[in-house]
Amino acid sequence: MRNQGQVFLGILIIFIGLMFLIGNVFNVNVWIFCWPLGLILLGVWLLLRPQLVSPDTAVRQKLLGDIHRDGVWQVTNEEIWIGVGDVDLDMTSADIPMGETTIRIFGFVGDVDLLVPKDVGVSVSSTSFVTDAKVLSQREDGLLAPVHVVSDNYETAERRVRLEMTSFVANLRVKQI
Hints:
Strand content: over 45%
């Protein structure tokens, strides 16, 4: 499956590159336009994004701070937007529905820790500018290094969790216990 965040990040980098190219060719200070345009686009995106996702997907936005879930809780399709902070999802006691549940995390800088039971299949896709990831038993780190790891039991598991993450700086830990 294609990580939508990777496509978005690629388009954003191309757009920024084109802005700087146009600025150099026409001798225009690009920063005068980039910051206001960026803030306007971010505001429009934040207003429209909840209406663009499917009705069964919860959208949670937090500029600063952490999101922690543990104990007994209901896992649902979810989109989490976090500026700077940590997302800790402990699913060992959670109610995970049958079929595939998708969790998308978009952030600027943060740690994501995901704990899932052994009988739950896990698929992880992450795109970041700087990545430090330990997913299941694989270790990945570097610049612009996409991470895609699927557990051995993903296709056959009755309950599956798909994590898609896009951020600027990411520290990702996924563990089956």
